[in-house]
Structure formats: C-alpha cells, structure tokens
Specification:
With about 200 residues, this protein is mainly alpha-helical. The protein contains 7 helices and 2 strands; from the N terminus they run H-H-E-E-H-H-H-H-H. The protein has a two-stranded antiparallel ribbon. The chain binds adenosine-5'-triphosphate and magnesium ion (MG).
C-alpha cells in the first residue's frame, strides 16, 4: 500500500524510498539500516529511562529525530501535507500540531498511565486508546508505525512492563485491520486485544 502524497519532497522520484543522507537507493538496504537504527534506539531509550523521564510531546518527537536523523532530513519534523493510506485519512495537516498537543496533554493528565499500571486490563485499554490516537495522527512523513510502537513500548517499560510483544501480529494483516478500525471508526477494541496479549510485567523492575 502506498501513500497518495501530492507534493512531497520526501521520496526519491518514482520510488517509495525516502530521500536520504547516504543516497541509498536500494530498498532492502535502507530497510536493514532503519532496523539497525531502531534497534539502537530501543537500547538507548530504555537505558536512559528513569522515573523522572517525562514522556511528553517533545519526548515523542525526539524519539523520531534521534533515531533517524543520521539518515533522514525529515526526522523529527511534522509533515505539512495531508496523508492517506488505503481508505484511511490521517489527521489533516492543518490540525496536526493542535491534535498532537491535545493527545500528550491528555496523557499527562492521566499521569502517563502510572495510576492504573497494576490493572493490566485497564492499562492495555488506555494504552490502546493512545496508540490509536497516534496512529490516526500519523505526524511524520515516514516511520510513524515504528516510532508509535517504540513510544508505547517506552511507556510500557516506564510503567513496569516489558516492551509489547507484537510477534505474529505485525506480520499478518491483524495489526493493519486494528489500525483501520482505530483511524476510521475510533474503535480500539482490536488494538486493545493485541496490546493486552503482548503485555507482560517486567519482574526485574
Ligand atoms: N489502511 C490503513 N489505515 C490506517 N492505518 C494504517 C493503514 N495502513 C497502515 N496503517 C498504520 O500506519 C502506520 C504505518 O505508517 P508508516 O509507513 O509511516 O510507518 P512505518 O514505521 O514505516 O510502518 P510499519 O508500521 O509498517 O512499520 C502504522 O501505524 C500502521 O498501523
Ligand atoms: Mg512505512
């Protein structure tokens, strides 16, 4: 599935490969590199995490920036074009900043879910709500899915859980279907189930 992007400077003409600082034109190679950068980010951000860390909007944007800035100029930059995928319309560019601020203020008002962390079912429900909001926001030109999941994993770790296990879900269509329902119908029941099944307490924390 490709984006219908009207006037984007993001992709190398005629391809779905983003313009990149290393001038890589090979899709497989760039995916491998993205995976390496993401693995490094998981290590770095979980290592640096403390009870003092504020998982606010700046933190979320920094995740994208710090993970991918060596490769992409658009790292940490919110898009200024409208984007769709399949039949899903993501947040209109004109509302992006206001909606983003609203989501992170809501999360802050819920104390980043710390008050409900011991109720796994409720925790999964609220985390799925926020994951659905971020999927619908789709603020960056690329790598939204991976940064949204990284952010939710960091939030889970901060609350004493392990990173969410999405194995076997991402590979098949279930996660996409759950995303479609979240974006088009604000229905996060499938995302809730996926997150609930993938959540487990980190016994060492
Ligand atoms: N048809 C769709 N409707 C709504 N959301 C979708 C649809 N297809 C994909 N998504 C969501 O869009 C995001 C993918 O966006 P993007 O390609 O920017 O990120 P990515 O990191 O490259 O992707 P992925 O999540 O596949 O690793 C994911 O959160 C995914 O769940
Ligand atoms: Mg992508």
């Amino acid at each position: 599935m490709k984006y219908q992007l009207s006037k984007s400077w993001v992709y190398i003409e005629g391809t779905d490969i983003p313009q990149n600082r290393l001038d890589i034109k090979d899709s497989l190679f760039i995916h491998t590199l993205e995976k390496k950068l993401l693995d490094k980010a998981y290590y770095k951000f979980s290592f640096e995490l403390s009870s003092e860390t504020l998982l606010n909007e700046k933190y979320f944007i920094d995740l994208h920036k710090k993970t991918f800035e060596s490769l992409y100029e658009f790292a940490g930059v919110y898009r200024d074009v409208n984007m769709t995928k399949g039949n899903s319309q993501f947040c209109l560019a004109q509302h992006l900043h206001a909606q983003s601020t609203r989501i992170f203020e809501e999360l802050e008002s819920e104390k980043y879910l710390s008050r409900i962390k011991d109720d796994k079912s409720l925790f999964a429900q609220r985390l799925a709500y926020y994951q659905g909001e971020l999927i619908a926001l789709h603020p960056f030109y690329e790598l939204n899915g991976r940064i949204t999941r990284l952010y939710c994993d960091v939030l889970a770790i901060w609350n004493g859980y392990k990173p969410i296990n999405y194995d076997s879900i991402i590979e098949n269509e279930q996660y996409i279907q759950a995303s479609i329902e979240a974006v088009q119908y604000a229905d996060v029941s499938k995302l809730t189930e996926i997150i609930f099944n993938g959540l487990s307490k980190d016994e060492e924390s």
